[in-house]
Amino acid sequence: MSIVIDENLGLFTLHTHSSTYQIKVGPYGFVLHTYYGPRIDGEDLSYLLPRRSMSFSANPADTGSDRSFSMDSQPQEYATYGATDYRESALQVTGPDGAAYADLRYDGFECCAGKYGLEGLPALYGEGFDTLKLYLIDAHTGLRVTLLYGVLEQEDVITRAALIENRGTAPLSLDRALSLCLDFPTSDYDLYTFHGRHCRERIPQRTPLPHGKLRVDSLRGASSHQYNPFIILCDRSASEDAGCCYGASLVYSGSFLAQAEVDQAGATRLVMGIHPDTFRWSLAPGDVFTVPEVCLTFSGEGLTGLSHRLHRAFRDHLCRGKFRTARRPVLINSWEAVYFDFDSDKLVEIARSAAPLGVELLVMDDGWFGKRDDDNSGLGDWVVNEKKLKGSLAELARRVNECGLGLGIWIEPEMVSEDSDLYRAHPDWCLHIPGRAGSRSRNQLVLDMGRSDVQDYLLASISDVLRSANIAYVKWDMNRHLTEVGSAVLPAGRQGEAGHRHILGVYRLMDRLTAAFPDILFEGCSGGGGRFDAGMLYYTPQIWCSDDTDAAERLIIQYGTSFGYPISTVGSHVSVCPNHQTGRTTPLRTRGVVAMAGTFGYELDISRMSEEEKQEVSAQVALYKRNYTLINQGDYYRLSDVMAQSDYAAWLFVSPAQDRALFNFVQRYAQAASPGFRIRLKGLKPQARYRIGDTGLTLSGAALMGAGLYLPPMDGDYGAVQWEIEEI
Ligand code: GLA
């Protein structure tokens, strides 16, 4: 058991393979946090808790004349607003008296093997977890909080979530209910955040913690392109290969807050959860609110170690269904090939030219349903446009299948166009505020997914389509953020619930659809990578990483994404040049190498490629299939800092047995008189000997990792090298 409990001491010690997390029931029954860091024996660390009188830090009423105890300086598991802690709180509750106040004290525990589940919310699951439940109570109101801890020893993962229950007799209002409150005694850390915009997601930024609050967030109703709900706190000296790093990934896809606060005493508090600014939840007597999960990971071996642990945890304990392990097809997507301008003959032509090259699935992207020849109409009408397809979907699937490919389709369930039969029939089904005009984005409105009639309609209409033909894949898109977040089915006093209810509705629909069609591969998408979060990975084992398909740009986007998310989840395609987003031209070889650091596929009109290009595609597909397990289940090493170095990018996949590797290199910005590149590999067996691609070289792991490889400079920008490395 990874959880050690000393009831006499009120001590709860959670051990993972290389970390320890400790909780102490402190004076007056407050639930305090004593430690999170490299594994220790589990001795009581409560001697570290600060005891000092601080002016202007108030003392709880029951401390009497003891001025040395204030929640303003105590490290806590779930800080509340209203009493003596002035730092960012995890919980804020308004009672029947109208006052914002909560005072939580320890009220018992439970511990068991296995993982707790969260009703209606995504969460990590599976073998290897132990669960600790800590009960806290506010005796005045009857508010009971259950803090949930899931310990996955092998991957150094600790998950946290909470249940908030009104056991009193009067209604309560939850004004904030965050997932994480994690206090550290010092502030000598850097914080990694991941920022961006449409077509430029998850750009890493490393900032030394300043005094005050360093936050990233989303008020967009989706986790967003702009900031990702994943952060890393690390030692100032932490590097890829050394130092303590703490990852926190929110398993949630809506508006969020993630923040590090350095307080007056130089201590650090991390908080993370549903964004409190737009959240309010009524808790009637007997009601329980479920707080989403956050996944914590610790690495004492730098950022690479952190990524490896998270990659494995998400691959094995978050992604679900058949395609968690089954090989996913190499696909060709119609979007950048033909956009809205296609019919079935054109699609079959693409499938026919892709088949001999080893491509296995054709995705018919946007434009196949309702009235949809551009992005101004049709969303919500999930009925096949048989005129455009010149026949049924079943007929198209049959023709594509005859070419040897599976057929996939695109959907965007959460949206509605005003020019649609659905909107004409149910104008009140979208999020809106009565009397106010709705804002448009991409000329579309957002359905109120919290409504069960909306969910039922979408389930039925999309299921009908999926049942009508042999469909092997679905791309689930979401192309605008939320505005006018009001629901026609909620009373005025509960409109603060609309945003979270919307996400719960999205999850419910995803759960039902993916359960009804277990053989279909679902890929998430939101204008590219606008909803690339751990919540979505529970329903879709891969997510389109970005609408920017330019290989040079993808080097940065995929580099940033790799810190928190496994390669098997990163949707990545080879597209045409000049690239449609940047106008840049990169060699086909390079586009292939870059797209192989992901789910791999194509997004161009293969029927227009030259014979020479087709041969190259064929070789790429064969290489990808040969290395599928290595890429998708192996360990991924960043061999360069793409943000700091403009001259090249390199990365490596190593098999779990360390007997195979795939080395990838892109020369980014060619320099005159360049001496070439020396790149040290990682993760190999020092004593083993390896054959390096077609170089004729055989070298020991020690030489490859100590001395490295040499790559001569190439003429021009964006040349690529890819070597399969094998133990001999
Ligand atoms: C979004 C997606 C694209 C494509 C279009 C279709 O932008 O990210 O890949 O599916 O929608 O409208």
Could you characterize what this model shows?
With 728 residues, this protein is α+β, with helices and mostly antiparallel strands. It is 19% helix and 31% strand. The protein is built from 14 helices and 39 strands. The strands form 8 sheets. Strands 6-7-8-9-20-16-15-12-13 form a 9-stranded antiparallel beta sheet. A 9-stranded parallel beta sheet has the order 29-28-27-26-23-22-21-31-30. A 6-stranded antiparallel beta sheet has the order 32-33-34-39-36-37. Helix 11 (588-595) runs parallel beside helix 12. The longest helix has 19 residues, at 498-516. The protein is globular and about 85 Å long. The chain starts with a strand and ends with a strand. The model has no long low-confidence stretch (mean pLDDT 97). The structure holds alpha-D-galactopyranose. The site of alpha-D-galactopyranose has 12 residues, from loops. Residues 335, 365-366, 375, 410, 477, 479, 525, 527-528, 544, 547 line the site of alpha-D-galactopyranose.
Outline of the structure:
This protein is α+β, with helices and mostly antiparallel strands and 728 residues long. The protein contains 14 helices and 39 strands.
